[in-house]
Amino acid sequence: MNSIFIIINIAVLLLLMAGLFFMQKKHVSFSKRVFTALGLGLVFGFVLHLIYGTTSEITAGTIDWFNIVGNGYVKLLQMVVMPLVFISIVGAFTKLKLTKNIGKISFLVIGILLGTTAISAAIGIGSALGFGLDGIHLTAGDAENARNALLEEKVTGVKDMTIPQQILELLPSNPFQDLTGARPTSTIAVVIFAAFIGMAYLGVKRKDPEHADFFAKIIDTLYSIIMRVVTLILRLTPYGILAIITRVTATSDYEAILKLGKFVVASYVALILMFIVHLLLLTFAKLSPVNYVKKALPTLTFAFTSRTSAGTLPLNIKTQTKDFGVSEGIANFAASFGLSIGQNGCAGIYPAMLAVMVAPAAGINPTSPSFIVSLILVVAISSFGVAGVGGGATFAALIVLSVMNLPIAIVGLLISVEPLIDMGRTALNVSGSMTAGVLTGKVTGELEKDVYQRPNVVEA
Q1: Are 94 and 219 a contacting pair, CB within 8 Å?
Q2: Which whole-number Å values give the CA distances from 308 to 69, 123, 216, 352, 437, in the listed order?
Q3: d(Cα 134, Cα 5) in Å, to the nearest integer?
Q4: Can you give the pLDDT at residue 135?
Q5: CA distances, 32 to each of 35, 53, 319, 457 (Å)
Q6: Is 91 within 8 Å of 223 (Cβ atoms)?
Q7: Which GO molecular-function terms appear in the entry (predicted)?
Q8: In Å, what is the CA distance from 193 to each residue of 89, 203, 295, 335, 386?
Q9: Residue 258 half-sphere exposure toward CB, CA atoms < 13 A
């Protein structure tokens, strides 16, 4: 009998996907199809939750099949992330216009990412204090105890490492291993390796222009091929979002969310405030925040539902170049660096809030100016090398709490609401990298304002 219900649920999903395909054939815009998929997924997932519950065999079996579409789509995006990061950074050096300002562009992108992370940490601290969050009264169940046992193992190495040793971990000793994403810091390691290749290209260009031109053509060709692969995968976005948000809505523990509702609300208040900071920065740069929201929304929606900054990388670059008018070089730099450096949500707000919550348990006054300043600095420095996939916030929190000599158990106590909060954190991470790209383009004169100002074009 269970199999029959599972088959019915799969049939409904296929019917909804057929509707999205029909919209595509009718040339309905990409953003409208994405939001239609989001709405359908919310309704369908909630219906499944009401009928079968979160832990039934029918729900588990249904979601297992749905994951072929949802997780399959995310895996396809992750498949092209490392090649795209490598080729994007090297390609940034081979573009003549960018090489004239390479130092300035790198400084601006990294500076904006780290600066906004410091601001997000301050906002996270303010939100935790404003809502009176206290980690002392959180209780652990079986799932939380199991999670904490794993975290104790995971943090052992981090606790024993000094900040200089953590910085050394960012360097690529084996770039081929890092291209497989084997380490949490693999993304930033690939960026560093690609930057060395790019600088070597500049040296060769001065001494042997013929070989340099040949290399540039190879990189441009590879970039075109990879972006074509990305385009093919992005066409699946509405279907992936439909399956992912259906799973999230159907399997969420609403009782646990209500119990930890205060923390969830405080987190989203901080996330929204930081997003407003992004819009204010654009406003100060004399760029329309309304246009930014309209054009960034499909990309941020995917980041929200998928919970992966790395998987959103292709959409991030596409939005910056095609919709905002940012030059390819800057867009590639900002999007790639944004995977590992200065993630406003995962590496900024979240660790700062947890530190404030557990500080009293360690006998520290969380309102002390010295504690707040130290925490903001540690958060900003520790934001290097945060993994751009689901779980990066946990890694960031472990580093920050360990450096500050604070208890790490609270990270495991929030396991039940982690997915819900991580959705907002990931969207903010992506917004931060796009904001860095747009602002850098504006400062360096590599932003086409007419592209930024014009409305979105309809896509097939």
Answers
A1: yes
A2: 16, 23, 31, 21, 19
A3: 43
A4: 62
A5: 5, 30, 15, 12
A6: yes
A7: L-cystine transmembrane transporter activity; symporter activity
A8: 9, 16, 32, 16, 17
A9: 3
CA dihedral 442, 444, 449, 451 (to 10 degrees): -110
**What is the rounded distance in angstroms from the CA atom of residue 219 to the CA atom of residue 223?**
6
Q: What is the pLDDT of residue 457?
A: 53
Structure tokens at 402: 């360990």
Phi, psi of 266 (to 5 degrees): -60, -40
Instruction: Give the chain's residues under pLDDT 50.
Output: 139-148, 150, 389-390, 458-460
Which pLDDT score is estimated for 460?
41
- Domains within the chain, CATH numbers bracketed: 1-453 (1.10.3860.10)
Q: How many CA atoms lie within 13 A of 383 on its CB side?
A: 36
Q: What is the pTM of this model?
A: 0.78
